[in-house]
Amino acid sequence: MKKEIPVLLSNKIREYRIEKKLTQQQLADLVEVSSRTIISLEKGQYNPSVLLAYNLAQIFDLTIENLFNFEEVDHEKE
């Protein structure tokens, strides 16, 4: 059985949203989710589905990799 490695997911949604002069509600409407989902994403409290991540990246004309940062968390080193 493969050991599951925890992943820390951070993003730049807030900074790109502000750069495009969008409110959280406007961005939520564009990707068809609630403003609560956008708030949770910006705070790093929610990991999006692949489809949501793709749609957000499309809004900002970015790749998913440029919008989201995936970092493995090695608890053995802590």
In the CATH hierarchy, what is the class? Mainly Alpha
Low-confidence stretches: none
Strand order of the largest sheet: 1-2
CATH homologous superfamily title: lambda repressor-like DNA-binding domains
Architecture overview:
With 78 residues, the chain is an alpha+beta fold. It has a single domain, classed as lambda repressor-like DNA-binding domains (434 Repressor (Amino-terminal Domain)). It is built from five helices and two strands. A two-stranded antiparallel ribbon has the order 1-2. Helix 2 packs across helix 3. The model has no long low-confidence stretch (mean pLDDT 88).
Protein topology:
Layout: E1 7-11, H1 13-19, H2 24-31, H3 35-42, H4 50-59, H5 64-67, E2 68-72
Antiparallel strand pairs: 1-2
Helix pairs in contact: 2-3
Describe this structure in a few short sentences.
By secondary structure, the protein is an alpha+beta fold. The chain has 5 helices and 2 strands; from the N terminus they run E-H-H-H-H-H-E.
Give descriptors for this structure.
alpha+beta, two-stranded antiparallel ribbon, 434 Repressor (Amino-terminal Domain), 2 strands, 78 residues, single chain, 47% helix
